[in-house]
Write a structure and sequence with these properties.
By secondary structure, the protein is α/β, with parallel strands linked by helices. It has one domain: Rossmann fold (3-Layer(aba) Sandwich), CATH 3.40.50. 39% of the residues lie in helices and 19% in strands. The strands form two sheets. Strands 4-2-1-6-7-8 form a six-stranded parallel β-sheet, sandwiched between helices. It binds adenosine-5'-triphosphate (ATP) and magnesium ion. Adenosine-5'-triphosphate (ATP) binds next to α1, β6, α5 and α8.
Length: 207
């Protein structure tokens, strides 16, 4: 047995979860030799306090459905059960408390989200807490972005991986449902069926 557990954490709104998230989690799992990936839907995402978000229970259940068949993925209720606005740093500290010093934490994120994280004024708080794995799309000019953000990037431990399904987004899926366009093949079929069953995303949103 290995002395440490390598835990991947993928935070997000998951409104809804899609193949972009799942492909990224799987790629991180394999490339970084993780023991498992915890998918962690946000309660009230700090970056989305001004926009409408689907009730947490729906978002949670969709992540459970999407990950059920994968023994290396699990879903945590930690953030949706914690009252108030969700902050990633609180989650990582809580995971550290739960899993103890023998767990190594890897926070998996899309490159779009990572730029926001490194710009936060307290980004140094992540140092020593978790390694970041940021997904970029093939053809993305990573070097240029790294140069622009070089100062901020030096404050955290971060690695980049290329993921082919990066063009999929929850925003596009919600818009498609509202416009009665297809969403099949962008996410697991059972998630699309869940959306249909509960009539989610039928009304167009402001965001
Ligand atoms: P929205 O369009 O509502 O912002 P989203 O598709 O970006 O939704 P989030 O729940 O905001 O999904 O994202 C959760 C995490 O997954 C973030 O770190 C985000 O950067 C990342 N992510 C989102 N879409 C993809 C994708 N297609 N490939 C890889 N990572 C993604
Ligand atoms: Mg997003």
């Amino acid at each position: 047995m290995r002395a440490t557990t390598r835990l991947g954490i993928m935070g997000g709104t998951f409104d809804p979860i899609h193949f972009g998230h799942l492909v990224t989690a799987e790629e991180a799992l394999v490339q970084f030799n993780l023991d498992r990936v915890i998918v962690m839907p946000a309660g009230r995402p700090a970056r989305k306090t001004d926009v409408e978000v689907t009730p947490a229970e729906h978002r949670y259940l969709m992540t459970v459905i999407a990950t059920a068949a994968n023994p290396d993925f699990e879903v945590s209720r930690m953030e949706i059960d914690r009252p108030g606005v969700t902050y990633t740093v609180d989650t990582l500290n809580a995971l550290r408390d739960v899993h103890g010093p023998h767990a190594e934490l890897f926070f998996i994120t899309g490159a779009d989200a990572v730029w926001e994280i490194v710009m936060w004024k307290d980004a140094e708080r992540f140092r020593g807490l978790a390694t970041f794995i940021a997904a970029t799309r093939p053809g993305y000019d990573l070097e240029a972005a790294q140069q622009v953000h070089s100062e901020e990037l030096s404050r955290i431990d971060i690695h980049f991986i290329e993921v082919p399904a990066l063009a999929i987004s929850s925003t596009d899926i919600r818009r498609r449902v509202a416009e009665r366009r297809p969403i099949r093949y962008l996410m697991p079929e059972a998630v699309a069926a869940y959306i249909q069953k509960y009539g989610l995303y039928r009304e167009a949103r402001q965001s």
